[in-house]
Amino acid sequence: MTSINKTSNNELKKIIREFRETAPDVYMPGIxxxxxxxxxxxDKLKVLLSQVGDPPSFGLPGGFVRKDEDLDDAALxxxxxxxxxxxxxxxQFYTSGKKDRSNGKMLKDLMEKVIGKMPESSWFMQxxxxxxxxxxxxxxxxxxxxxxxxxxxxxxDINRVPKLIFDHxxxxxxxxxxxxxxxxxxxxxSNLMSETFTMNELQRLYEAVYQEKxxxxxxxxxxxxxxxxxxxxxxYNGKSHKAPFLYRFxxxxxxxxxxxx
Amino acid sequence: MTSINKTSNNELKKIIREFRETAPDVYMPGIxxxxxxxxxxxDKLKVLLSQVGDPPSFGLPGGFVRKDEDLDDAALxxxxxxxxxxxxxxxQFYTSGKKDRSNGKMLKDLMEKVIGKMPESSWFMQxxxxxxxxxxxxxxxxxxxxxxxxxxxxxxDINRVPKLIFDHxxxxxxxxxxxxxxxxxxxxxSNLMSETFTMNELQRLYEAVYQEKxxxxxxxxxxxxxxxxxxxxxxYNGKSHKAPFLYRFxxxxxxxxxxxx
DNA sequence: ATCTATTGTATCATTTTGATACAATAATAA
DNA sequence: TTATTATTGTATCAAAATGATACAATAGAT
Lengths: 261, 261
Known about the structure:
Two copies of one chain form a homodimer.
Chain A: H1 4-7, H2 10-26, E1 27-41, E2 44-52, E3 57-59, E4 62-66, H3 71-83, E5 91-96, H4 105-115, E6 129-136, E7 153-157, H5 168-180, H6 183-187, E8 197-198, H7 199-210, H8 216-226, E9 229-234, E10 245-249
Parallel strand pairs in A: 1-6
Antiparallel strand pairs in A: 1-2, 1-4, 2-3, 2-7, 5-6, 8-10, 9-10
The structure holds a DNA duplex (30 and 30 nucleotides).
């Protein structure tokens, strides 16, 4: 992993200075967007974090909303700009607005570590309310493009997220809770699984999200019963046992339920 | 119901002019808060709307966030200021941020109907992102205090909400969907039921929220099984049949579930 | 051919849910 | 006083969903 210092050259500083000067004209004041990007690797649920500052700390990938841009579009654009990833289904789940959640000084300090002194009255000094989104990503598809302003990315095991900037730890916690409620529906149309997968892979994802072991046979029955899986050919993977079927999420509309008695 | 005209006296105009002038210093730019207040009356789910302008149209009760105020606190304060209702459990459920959801002109026009011409560059002309909350209210307790700037309140049947200002119809739709998902948990600690209630009253609330009939006996079994109800004395109400028990939501912590297989 | 690890399905017990029956009872009418 | 009525609380049976376990099928290794 490259330290932020290696990319802090003059070119970068110029870009940042430009950004600092044009930001107040281009972006809405006081509103930022942050995204919790979940991935799944090595049977663990992961979250994509962005390195900032030196010594490095980490935070959610985020950015600002253009004055003529829908919130949802801003979230997509920022994710695309920073990770290179496109066609992601992002879902808004929370807006963080405690008055001192980002006391401005933090952001300003961060910026100053990269580009040096900034005026007290900086646009970045203001209070920000952050609208938060989450996405489920098949992380074999994510190619985090070295990001211009804040540095690079790293996947963290959901259980080993360090102390993050601002209130981003809290935001991740809320995102996980949102994910856990009704994962069945959220997976469909998400990008968390690769296009095709085995039942075993799907089960391990559930186990990672809910952080508990599930009974294989019953899990299979349940998943098939949801009516969202399409069975494809078997997958001969060279292992010395019966080959599993491959599945994919079918496009067909599924039944909906609610929990009324 | 009093028309806005009757309250549009000089006193009011002065207050509004003052508000208009101090707003940019006091409030965060570009962020508003709106609340969907659900009530239950005549076996119908209702929503509390505020009359604005003349000819009157309706909208959600809302307001702005002080620069030194938590988002959640702002929602509470605004609700308190406008309805007089205190100690409400408000839950944030959505942030509305389409670029043209409140194209500024709408808000400015509304203000101008009340206080006359405003400058093009008005603070109110800017784009607003609205953070939305909902609450469940026992509407026998709500005493909508005649509200200063925008007029008065009216309860609307959830199925008979007129065309509202901005994107408030959409916001109410989202609020109802949020309410419907997992009502069991949302009721506890809410203010929607009165302190004590009969099983029948509770059932009628469920039927209003889910918009469907439920089977009495199974409903009762289900509710009792949740372990959140405390059975009190019987309620002798003069009706010529067996008196029902009264219940209240018990403080005791309840079991939590998740929907994993 | 036999063994091993894993997969797909079946089966039985338990729990939850849906539908229905029925006894209890508070006021009213006879 | 007794029968009537509407509603309530609980029981019961069937159907569906879930939990636990058994077992045959099979792709490759031995």
